[in-house]
Model the fold of this input.
Amino acid sequence: MTEEPERKPARVVVADDQTVVREGIVMLLGLLPGVEVVGAAGDGEEAVRLVAELAPDVVLMDLRMPRCDGVEATRRIRAHHPGTQVVVLTTFADDDSLFPALRAGARGYLTKDAGGDEIVRAVHSVLSGDAGLSPSVQRRLLERLSAPEPERAAPPVPPDGLTTRESEVLVLIADGLSNQEIARRLSVSTATVKTHINNMFTKTGLKGRAQAVRYAYRKGLVRPPTG
Done:
């Protein structure tokens, strides 16, 4: 009877902007079989660079990081390095971070109170083609998918040749969001938001956010508060 070959450790990059947390995760994984930490990144830009340099099997990705957040870093990694899977490891288990991360290509999602064994299981699950989701996240996902879709009124046709996305950006500007906040809301980069804003200003002849807000109300894209 032949023995099965021993499974190679999964090569992992840890990305977290908090040094204590990052070093703690690296130390924890170093004590466990089945994983080998090959790099650690302090933000999304560094995570993308390390993936290009080291070609790890999995990135353990924090979401809220400077320069490039975890959602955008996940999108870049999955687009340009499809051999690397992403498991989100975050403090926040809210829908606002869960679904953008999954849409960006993350295959696993754990909160930072997960134990080392749970992290290792998630890493090997995504490498086997399964989803590495904690039980609480699985419940949230199932609840979201099984909930009936609310009926939505047809969105207004964007004026002045604006695209749907440019119109969305305009509405969020009228809601008082910064470029960074708009980028997080739409799961795009800040540079992409700036491009949409520049295109919108060119098409409408607007100059500045104050004019954009008045324009959004005048065109009926947003309604003034009542009461």
Remarks:
- The CA atoms of residues 90 and 225 lie 35 Å apart.
- The chain has a mean pLDDT of 83.
